[in-house]
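Below is the record:
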Amino acid sequence: MTKEQYFSREHPRYIPVPNWDIHYEWPSKSALRNLIFHKKTNGFDKVVVKVGKRVLINEAAFFEWVANQGKGV
């Protein structure tokens, strides 16, 4: 099983906000925190998962959210 096959909708990868920049250049951690702060109004609540005090980003949901921006979804 390849990495891409494992990290699918069935097994999404959750990335902690402090580690986001290890995987991706955009958005910055501060921009990500701003999106999280306004998650109820911008639809980012579908991307964020909170486990205890840790805030995790569902990688697949993030890119789906990005793709739907500006489409009125």
Q: What stands out?
A: The chain has one domain: 3-68. The chain is about 40% helix and 15% strand.
